[in-house]
Specification:
- The chain is an all-alpha fold.
- It has a domain at 71-225: Tetracycline Repressor, domain 2, CATH 1.10.357.
- Helices cover 73% and strands 0% of the residues.
- The chain contains eleven helices and no strands.
- It is elongated, with a radius of gyration of 20 Å.
Length: 230
């Protein structure tokens, strides 16, 4: 289903940042728990401590609020991965980085994926994870903007690094496939069923560190097996 364009007032967010954020965070929790159809704007307004017209004022409609929630998640993802993405492009554009430097940068990208899916110290982590899982089932196309962010900020630099390692263009299909497989190692652990199968009641810092160590080990082993310049 294609959501209609958000028509809230263009300067509303700047004039009421606290109210805007309170509504958005409440909506994230309710959309995650009850889905788009189950979460009513009245309940969102009551829990956020605002009157019902505030949702229309700031977001235009329930659909606009839903869309803005996805945009907000995308902004959080960018904040997490933008520093490493910038380092990747700077390194690739500055000359000919060594093979070790390329692999280190690729490991940093993988670590960013671990952070996105497992690090519960990030704001709204639990609600964000559940919300995305629910949207993938209920309204998959609504996640297109988030997928584009992941493509631009994770897959594109990842493919560029793999391309350098194998001396092939970043857009080459085999290069993109390898980048997807390397970056996707940690994503599976974002699944609640996988976490339950591990017997994890909680994902604390030591487990996150353990996963980072393991995916780095895997990434380095994969990279050692790739043919490329010495």
């Amino acid at each position: 289903m294609t959501l209609p364009a958000n028509r809230y007032r263009p300067n509303a967010r700047q004039r009421g940042e606290d109210t805007w954020r309170r509504i958005l965070e409440t909506a994230l929790a309710l959309f995650a728990a009850e889905g788009f159809e189950g979460a009513s704007t009245r309940e969102i307004a009551e829990r956020a401590g605002v009157n019902l017209p505030a949702i229309q004022y700031y977001f235009g409609s329930k659909e606009g609020l839903y869309r803005e929630t996805i945009t907000h998640i995308g902004e959080q993802v960018v904040q997490t991965i933008a520093p490493i993405t910038a380092r990747v492009w700077e390194s690739l554009g500055s000359g000919t980085p060594s093979r070790a430097q390329l692999i280190n940068l690729l490991c940093e990208l993988v670590n960013a994926v671990v952070t996105i899916f497992l690090d519960k110290t990030l704001p709204d982590h639990e609600y964000r994870s559940l919300f995305v899982s629910r949207v993938e089932i209920e309204r998959a196309s609504a996640l297109d903007p988030l997928h584009e962010i992941m493509r631009q900020h994770l897959l594109a630099p990842g493919a560029a690094l793999v391309g350098r390692l194998v001396d092939r263009p970043a857009e080459d299909e085999q290069v993109v496939l390898r980048a997807l497989m390397i970056l996707g190692q940690a994503k599976i652990l974002g699944s609640r069923s996988v976490v339950r199968s591990l017997g994890w009641k909680a994902i604390d810092g030591s487990r996150v560190d353990s996963v980072r160590s393991m995916v780095n080990e895997h990434t380095r082993a994969i990279c050692r097996a790739l043919k490329g310049p010495a």
